[in-house]
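Something for you to look into today, if you have time. Just paste the record in under my message, thanks.
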Amino acid sequence: MPSDDGPAQRPLDPALIEHRDLTFDEARILGRRRLWRTYVPLVLVLLLGGYFGGRPAWRAAKAFQARRIAGEANALIEEEKWADASKRASDAMMLSFTEPASIRVNAHLLSRVGRSNDAVRYWKELEKIAPLSVDDRREFAGSALGIGDLDNAALQLQKVVESGVPPKAGDALLASQISAGKSDFKTSGEKALLVIAENSGASPRERFIASMLLVNLPQSEGKREAVRQLVSLARGSSPLALDALVWEARRVRPGTPSDPDRMSPAEIVQTLEQNPKSTISHKLLALDVIARTEPTRREEVILTAI
């Protein structure tokens, strides 16, 4: 979902440009596009279900096809094939914009790519016509959080809790973020600590977000443990390693005493330069660390940057 996305959400892939302009209302107007791709399967369905008769059969066939295509889109979303998922989600919506599976897969996709504002609209439409699953409500809460709708995010999370399902680390993370948004820093810190606990089952991304929350809270007992988690991520090979490394690099100050929980400036520079996903900005950050910690090499750094 942003500009309006929440911290736990992925950035919008450029390949989603086709899907980007599809809103719920526009889907009604575009409903007849791409139907030629599904004529043969629709005819088969009509032949098998001919007892429906006339227009009801046509609507039933379109709904069946929409559910099938939505299933394909969901599989593509789980594989993070955003462009292909976007096309199939759009196809499902164009076949039947009233089919819950069509609305759900679009809400799911929009939530995943960080388009929180659009995702919330789809979740609200779905809630009007079909019950939301626990996972639906988790994503709904995350998208509502992404646009600053803290009350709605809290409501969706409360319904997850009331469902009686075993809690996940992501639930504690949502609670921490919502509490931070409401300036309840004590509760936010307590919930974030649950996420970074050793056996929490949290993903690296959830640990990263919770750790960043803890180190930025005005008061938090878990800051030191959060720093350890971030440094561990920075030294690792996960997709978040560079993000954690950038955070650590920006904390470097001249004359900072050595700390076993911190990376040394030399280690930061080496890791930034050697990470296979490092970009020009990361190389420049490495030079900046050298300039800040080794003043005698500033001229060398300037010449290298030029």
In short: The CA atoms of residues 290 and 297 lie 7 Å apart. Residues 54-78 form the longest helix (25 residues). The chain has 17 helices and no strands.
